[in-house]
Design goal:
Length: 129
Amino acid sequence: MSGKSFLKIASIALVLFVFACVLGEQFPANAQGKNNPVKPSPESLAKGKKVYKIDCAMCHGENGDGKNDMDMKNVPDLTNPDVQQKATDGKWFQIIHDGKGDMPPEAARAKNEDDLWNLVNYCRTLAKK
């Protein structure tokens, strides 16, 4: 990873961390065992896709395959059915909410829980059949 890319990612992560600390928790994070209350409707998928393109594609790739221009390692391939099946929607929600490893949390940017569930729904559509 180039120095420029690292600084860009570090800057984004720092801003998100500070934003999350200032706002505090907007909604409960412990959703691992929770069922997805948002049905994957065309509206939900469109909302999730919009968020994905803005907040996720730079690292996870436009198609979710983990290929990106930032030379990042260990980015899961969301198109892999095995990756999709390893976690419940609640677990995906938890990861998106809290972040994982170098992935920043999405909770600070979401207006409500439904925004995160919409993103879970969209990410589920990325799996290869």
